[in-house]
Amino acid sequence: MKLFNYYRQDTGEVGLGAVTEEGHVLVTETAEKSGLEAPCCIEAAMKEDGFAELLAGILSDSAKAVTDEDSIDFASPLLHPEKIICVGLNYRKHAEETHMPIPKVPIYFAKYSNALNCHKGEIPLRPVSVQYDYEAELTVVIGKECSEVSEEEALDYVFGYTCGNDFSCRDLQVVTSQWTISKTMDGFAPIGPYVVTGDAIDAGNLRIAAWVNGEKRQDSNTNDLIFDVKCLISDLSRRLTLKPGDIIMTGTPSGVIMAYPPEERVWLKKGDVVDIEIEGIGKLTNVLA
User: Fold this and answer.
1) Rounded distance, CA 178 to CA 163, Å?
2) Lower CB count within 10 Å: N or C terminus of the chain?
3) Using an 8 Å Cβ cutoff, are 151 and 230 in contact?
4) Domain edges within the chain
């Protein structure tokens, strides 16, 4: 399944949508017209027993509300995650390009809910920093409460995957040994536009890329991850309880501005457009403002 959240034109509230061969179906509005109950968003859907069967019934409605992608006002696919967990230096070639040693254990840091942003959302730039950088990231959406699980069990707790951009202020990042403040300013965690359920893709072999103003900057594959999704979920679950709706941004591949020679670094600025695309999931676009 490929799902999305959107803002309804009639009420301004968030609704649930699904991508089908016929187009983008507004599931919430279709269900209402048919007198059916449907989850109002992706977080509600993942808690709904028998959601796949319920969705199939709604999508079979001949009068379903179908639209095209350009007409949708996308909301963030996750609205209230308890945790936004990020992983640093988790692609081998990225660690190499930054002249950092290959990590022996995952490097974790956090973003907060103020950083959440959506497809086509503006990322506000503040004068406190001038070295703004992109980071394309495969982002994991946890679907079930998860504690003390093995790597063999780990994927059973994944609801799905989405595109993410671990937007960063590099000058703030190097002021101290702690990265969080440089990573969690308002709007610095764009995700979306879609969540693809875990049964639909192989997270260990996905092309991942980033563009700035149409120029390709990152082009890699998740098979270059040092710690894969199974490892990260199992490792985290031994230290804390993961909850439905939590997200894990799994790290970025090579090609970030920070890794360029100093004389070649042109930091992002207002008006720039950043696209993040992951095979089988979709493309996340944000404008800097």
Assistant:
1) 25
2) C
3) yes
4) 2-71, 84-288
Over its length of 289 residues, how does the chain's per-residue pLDDT go in tens digits? 999 999 999 899 999 999 999 999 999 999 998 888 889 999 999 998 889 998 999 988 878 899 999 999 999 999 999 999 999 999 999 999 988 899 999 999 999 999 999 999 999 999 999 999 999 999 999 999 999 999 999 999 999 999 999 999 999 988 888 889 999 999 999 999 999 999 999 999 999 999 999 999 999 999 999 999 999 999 999 999 999 999 999 999 999 999 999 999 999 999 999 999 999 999 999 999 9
Element (H, E) at 209: strand 207-212
Residue 144: how many other CB atoms lie within 10 Å: 14
> Facing residues of 85 across strands?
110, 248
Evaluated on CA atoms 59, 61, 65, 67, the torsion sign reads: positive
Distance CA 189, CA 112 (A): 9
* CATH number for the segment(s) 84-288: 3.90.850.10
User: Residue 119 to residues 14, 97, 104, 108, 261: CA-CA distances in angstroms?
Assistant: 14, 29, 34, 25, 31
Does the predicted model carry a pTM greater than 0.90?
yes
Evaluated on CA atoms 193, 245, 46, 223, the torsion sign reads positive
HSE-CB for 202 with a 13 A CA cutoff: 6
